[in-house]
Design goal:
alpha+beta, 2 domains, Creatine Amidinohydrolase, Chain A, domain 1, about 35% helix, Creatine Amidinohydrolase, four-stranded mixed β-sheet, about 350 residues
């Protein structure tokens, strides 16, 4: 990440505080903290205002914080919040915003106890997340690298996959290969499901083995340099029959329709609708039980939700997934997923892996 992006981001957020009617913002969400400072430690909090950017952390991260950040750092022992509130009092902040989606109630109680006389705590929701919606060129390149790592790991594993391969072994090998290729780990719990278990959209890998004439669903993503990727691909062991081919064709057509609908100004719900119309025409819409996709970046699930009721207009620079699927109990499920960048003219698919059904 280019270090000069962090001060720019902080200035943008600080400039927006007046609209929220607060003097400063307490940033406690881990992804938001990383977005604004570059800090990757597990214990930190940021006090942000138009004239202040103070990161408070503990002695474990003294060296790391100095290396990762370009804002003021204060290292304290014990709870971070008394030091943060003393800094707020010295600066005479009266209305202190806090991230209502990220602050635990116990911490809120502690902040209340440390409040200066006449000061108040004010809930602020989604301010940093709204600025994270559109990615910079640097962020998109980091996501692209994560996508490429994810796809390369999938290719390595599938070259050795075959009859008898267990879900848990394939999942472990995918995670291992992603790390070998540069990821810090999986972006989420890797999903591997064989046969009828592929009808479980978020199946947890088990000791179930892949057998002939069975589907295999793999949903895998890397977390690399802080940024996530997400991909789902299908394989079949043996010769797929007409039902598998027809269902796979329907999902692929739905995904293509959704990707074609992506462009600036189109609402997220309209992209979702494009996928659903294809499946509805084939009487498969009732088997599509989740949204068409979601944003991703520093977190695997970020706004917007590419779903039925999300009216967020897409904008160039947003990164989303497109992942329609159908799930039939007793038969199995089929999902096809790519990571996609919204461009000024439409969509750019980052995922390089073929979307053809992999037949082994």
């Amino acid at each position: 990440m280019q270090a000069n992006e962090f001060p720019t981001r902080r200035r943008r957020i600080a400039a927006a505080l007046a609209e929220k009617n607060v003097d400063a913002l307490i940033v406690s969400g881990a992804a938001n903290l990383r977005y604004l400072t570059g800090f990757t430690g597990s214990n930190g909090v940021l006090l942000l205002s138009p004239g202040t950017a103070l990161l408070v952390t503990d002695p474990r991260y003294q060296i790391q914080a100095a290396q990762e950040t370009n804002c003021q750092v204060k290292v304290v022992r014990g709870s971070l919040y008394p030091a943060l509130m003393k800094a707020a009092a010295r600066r005479k902040f009266r209305r202190l915003g806090f991230e209502k989606d990220h602050l635990r109630y116990a911490v809120y109680d502690q902040l209340q106890a440390e409040l200066a006389l006449g000061a108040s705590l004010e809930p602020v929701g989604g301010l940093v997340e709204a600025h994270r919606l559109v990615k910079s060129a640097t962020e998109i390149e980091l996501i692209r690298r994560s996508v490429e790592t994810n796809s390369a790991a999938f290719a390595k594993v599938m070259r050795r996959a075959g009859e008898g391969a267990r879900e848990c072994d394939l999942a472990a090998e995918l995670d291992y290969q992603m790390r070998r290729l540069g990821a810090q780990g999986p972006a989420f719990d890797t999903i591997v499901a064989v046969g009828a278990r592929s009808a479980l959209p978020h199946a947890q890998p088990t000791a179930s083995a892949w057998r002939r004439n069975q589907l295999l669903l793999i949903d895998v993503g890397a977390s690399q340099d802080g940024y996530a990727s997400d991909m789902t691909r299908m394989a079949f062991l043996g010769r797929p029959g007409p039902k598998v081919k027809n269902l796979y064709g329907a999902v692929l057509e739905a995904q293509s329709a959704a990707i074609s609908a992506v462009r600036p100004g189109v609402r997220a719900e309209q992209v979702d609708g494009a996928a659903r119309r294809v499946l509805r025409a084939r009487n498969l819409d009732q088997a599509f039980v989740h949204s068409t996709g979601h944003g991703l970046g520093l977190e695997i699930h970020e706004p917007p939700r590419i779903g039925r009721w999300d009216k967020t207009p897409l904008a160039a620079g947003m990164v989303i997934t497109i992942e329609p699927g159908i799930y039939l109990e007793g038969f199995g499920g089929i999902r096809i997923e790519d990571t996609v960048v919204v461009t000024h003219t439409g969509a750019s698919v980052l995922t390089p892996t073929s979307k053809d059904l992999l037949v082994l």
